[in-house]
Amino acid sequence: MIVRILVVDDYAPWRRFISSVLRQKRGCRVVCEVSDGLEAVQKARELQPDVILLDIGLPKLNGIEAARQIHKLAPNSKVLFLSNEDSLGLVEEALNSGASGYVVKADAGSELVKGVKAVFRGNRFLSNRVKGAFAPTATPVRFSHAQPELAVSTKTEITRRHEVQFYSDDAVFLERACQFIGAALRNRNAAIVFVTKPHRDSLVQRLKAQGVDVDAAIQQGTYISLDAADMLSRFMVKDWPDAVLFFEGFASLIASASKAAKADYPRGAICGDGVALLWAQGKTDAAIRLEQLGNELADTYNVDILCGYPFSLHIQEDTDAFKAICAEHSAVHSR
């Protein structure tokens, strides 16, 4: 049995990546790719695909409204949302639009194909990271904002946060980095930045424009800014990240920044694009190893990490390496 799939996402590199993954899976066939909500509705009515992979943040018509229309025009097509968002309210609204499932993009590498096959068989599918927020039931649940107590779990725990931003323009990465670093500093936490010089200068300007007192943070020792190439030179040995030097370098930085932080429960932030420099030099295995060390760092110390990669043609074409990078992160952002 062949599953006919319509892929809907406004970001072309991500759309191509998802389609390439599906085309390699036996029993899956991508019948069309579209980039906006209106075209998604039109192609759903025209092609009547078995499964529609639908993003939420679409131009012309958002994914949730598109799903409602698709449910009427192609009632036999199963809608599986594939989105960056993992908030409970948005997942509820997406499921209430008539969708059969929801996959968070960060988990697409391990859950996408499972989700496609599950909804094709008539089952509901939820990403593991959102599934835990819903109480188990014997029958499908129709969620509503008036009855959140049926769905919300009271269990809360801090999990590793190691995110990656693939960006088509420097401004996209700087926007994400500014939000990431700014949130830490506003909460009286510390931030360690090791990015290229143009990014370092632009990040300071953006933080100041948003009202963050960067000069005071630098004086207090809660904002530490380093050059990415220089930082790499401290722990790269024969083109490979030396784990001992890596942890020695970051341990001292984290200890210094944490001591200066004024938060009751300090949780630092580390933002870097050094991995992108390795990738640009063709050292993809070294970049992946550095991401793995980042995970160990996040597990060992109370820090969150954000990495940045320009979405170059090379990274789009190297599908296996791209998937390996995504697999090392708790969340994947692409724009």
Task: Give the SSE layout.
Blueprint: E1 3-8, H1 12-23, E2 28-34, H2 37-47, E3 51-54, H3 63-73, E4 78-83, H4 88-96, E5 101-104, H5 108-120, E6 125-126, H6 128-131, E7 162-167, H7 170-186, E8 191-195, H8 197-209, H9 214-220, E9 223-227, H10 228-235, E10 236-237, E11 240-241, H11 243-260, E12 268-272, H12 274-280, H13 284-300, E13 303-310, H14 313-317, H15 319-327, E14 331-334
Parallel strand pairs: 1-2, 1-3, 3-4, 4-5, 5-6, 7-13, 7-14, 8-9, 8-12, 12-13
Antiparallel strand pairs: 10-11
What does the model show?
By secondary structure, this protein is of the alpha/beta class. The chain has two domains: 148 residues, 3-Layer(aba) Sandwich (Rossmann fold); 173 residues, Rossmann fold, CATH 3.40.50.300. Helix content is 48%, strand content 20%. The protein contains 15 helices and 14 strands. The strands form three sheets. Strands 2-1-3-4-5-6 form a six-stranded parallel β-sheet, with helices on both faces. Strands 9-8-12-13-7-14 form a six-stranded parallel β-sheet, with helices on both faces. Helix 7 packs across helix 8 and helix 12 runs antiparallel to helix 13. 41% of the residues are buried.
